[in-house]
Amino acid sequence: EYGIAEEDIWFDPIVLPINVQLQQVQACFEFTEQIPYMAPSGKSTCGVSNVSNGSPNHLRPILNQTYMIMLQKQGMYSCIMDPLDEGMMEFARGGRQDIVNLIYRMLDGEEVNPDDLSEEELKYYKTVRVLRGDILYSDSWLEV
Predict the structure, then answer these.
(1) pLDDT 10s digits, 96-109
(2) Which end of the chain has the lower number of beta carbons within 10 A, N or C?
(3) Per residue in 85-135, pLDDT tens?
(4) Rounded-to-integer distance, Cα 54 and Cα 5, Å
(5) What pLDDT shows up at residue 111?
(6) Alpha helix (H) ranges present in 39-118?
(7) Other Cβ atoms closer than 10 A to 78
(8) How far apart are CA 57 and CA 21, in angstroms?
(9) Which domains does the chain have, with CATH numbers?
(10) Under 8 Å CB-to-CB from 82, ≥6 apart: which residues?
(11) 67 in Cβ contact with 131 (< 8 Å)
């Protein structure tokens, strides 16, 4: 209608901080999955670090990393992220497939027994659960 080629359309579903609006974090996740149906050649991006704004600094990386992987599973084409976060960069380059697979399994509905996970895997497991709204966000969600 406006002469814009579909492959030139970018969607940027703004994500709000998890400690402010959990429902919007989930809506961004769900919207990302719908983009290919609305514009199959369109692309998506997201300011991933917004999800952790206001959270304690030591918790921000795992929130950002986990949410990026979750959005990637939904088809996110790119993301705006902190290039100084070495863990985030490792995931962005295709590393840590063990953690990516764990998160993907959870998103696919597989029952994951937390007792079978390493300490590091357990942190990502808990973070997926908080980002999905299975448990309430608090600054101590990793300690529970």
Answers:
(1) 999 999 999 999 99
(2) N
(3) 999 999 999 999 999 999 999 999 999 999 999 999 999 999 999 999 999
(4) 38
(5) 96
(6) 60-73, 86-92, 97-107
(7) 14
(8) 19
(9) 6-132 (3.20.20.20)
(10) 49, 64, 88
(11) yes
